């Protein structure tokens, strides 16, 4: 090879080396740029990229996070209030029931204090408050409390029997109690115008074979027959199961079809149309000897568990006559057993119907 050929070969070799180096440089530069873009995408995405990111892969995750972390206040308070077999005693109040020199709620709680084997039952009593005042009062008394969501409906003042607001409040109560059943809890519902003078559980059948045990205004001597019963939804015990949940769903579904009817009368109508039988509901109607009221006093003070200020129109009349019942009860507890006992007349409630 002469000198000229050698120089030409060397020059070609340099060109090849330069080309290889250039290609390697471009390759490394491309990789670096791509990686840089990826890093920026991960660290500082644009608004559009953020929106795409959230609306694609993470949408279901965010939804499930909100659901699983949403606080179920009712479930919490039911769990802390219930007995070991998931039974809760429930009463409902509003402002009118917690205010005054001696409020209805105070008298209701006096019954647990003065009754036989009743004080410990307060540990399983849930007060459902229909407004902020009654909720505050409940918390002040250190009871188990739940603030009812009323969707802007005013449940603050006194709701006279069969008034439009009274009927609305009774239906809202029914919807709430349906929700309790759907949470898997059995309950005794009690109006606060009922005095618990003895623990009622021994007089209630304690197994799942009976779906509902409900009080009546007047006992007709047949605890297992639906015919002719004057049921009162102020006191009843119900077990949570598919049948009772279906009962409450069917009951509440009648609300808009029954204008001017209170929920109790609608339940009576459904029962008489055969709803209990169609659902396989086993119902027991409670004898007023044990679960009495002003409509029909218990015939035996030694057996009575509860006294209900039914057949009464106003809170003031109920308070007056229930106070008299407390006096009667105290007299019985301290009296000689040989002395005859009679309930005092319920004059306040009798007179409440004269001023309508």
UniProtKB/TrEMBL annotation:
Keyword Calcium (UniProt): no
InterPro entries per UniProt: At1g28695/At4g15970-like, Nucl-diP-sugar_transferase
Residue ranges constituting the Nucleotide-diphospho-sugar transferase domain according to the UniProt record: 121-322
Residues spanning the membrane: 15-33
Keyword vocabulary terms for this entry: Membrane, Transferase, Transmembrane, Transmembrane helix
Keyword field contains Membrane: yes
Signal peptide from the UniProt entry: none
MF terms in GO: transferase activity
Pfam families: Nucleotid_trans
Organism domain of life: Eukaryota
The protein, known as: Nucleotide-diphospho-sugar transferase
Organism: Heracleum sosnowskyi
């Amino acid at each position: 090879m002469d000198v000229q050929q050698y120089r030409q070969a060397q020059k070609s070799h340099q060109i090849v080396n330069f080309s290889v180096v250039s290609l390697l440089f471009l390759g490394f530069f491309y990789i670096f740029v791509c990686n840089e873009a990826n890093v920026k995408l991960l660290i500082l995405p644009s608004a559009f990229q953020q929106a795409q990111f959230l609306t694609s892969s993470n949408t279901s995750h965010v939804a499930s996070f909100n659901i699983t972390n949403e606080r179920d206040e009712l479930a919490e308070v039911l769990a802390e209030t219930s007995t070991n077999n998931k039974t809760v005693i429930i009463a409902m109040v509003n402002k009118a029931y917690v205010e005054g020199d001696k409020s209805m709620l105070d008298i209701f709680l006096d019954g647990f204090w003065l009754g036989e084997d009743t004080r410990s039952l307060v540990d399983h009593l849930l007060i459902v408050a229909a407004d902020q005042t009654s909720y505050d009062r409940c918390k002040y008394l250190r009871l188990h409390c739940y603030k009812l969501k009323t969707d802007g409906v005013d449940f603050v003042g006194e709701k006279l029997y069969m008034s439009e607001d009274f009927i609305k409040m009774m239906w809202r109560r029914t919807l709430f109690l349906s929700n309790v059943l759907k949470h898997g809890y059995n309950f005794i519902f009690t109006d606060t115008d009922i005095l618990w003078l003895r623990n009622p559980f021994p007089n209630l059948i304690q197994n799942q074979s009976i779906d509902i045990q409900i009080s009546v205004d007047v006992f007709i001597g047949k605890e297992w027959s639906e015919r002719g019963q004057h049921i009162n939804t102020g006191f009843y015990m119900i077990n949570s199961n598919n049948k009772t949940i279906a009962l409450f769903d069917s009951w509440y579904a009648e609300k808009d079809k029954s204008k001017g009817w209170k929920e109790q009368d609608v339940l009576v109508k459904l029962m008489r149309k055969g709803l209990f039988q169609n659902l396989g509901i086993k119902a027991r109607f409670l004898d007023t000897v044990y679960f009495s009221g002003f409509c029909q006093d218990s015939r035996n003070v030694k057996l009575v568990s509860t006294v209900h200020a039914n057949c009464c129109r106003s809170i003031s009349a109920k308070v007056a006559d229930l106070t008299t019942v407390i006096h009667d009860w105290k007299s019985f507890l301290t009296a000689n057993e040989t002395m005859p006992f009679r309930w005092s007349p319920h004059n306040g409630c009798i007179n409440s119907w004269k001023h309508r």
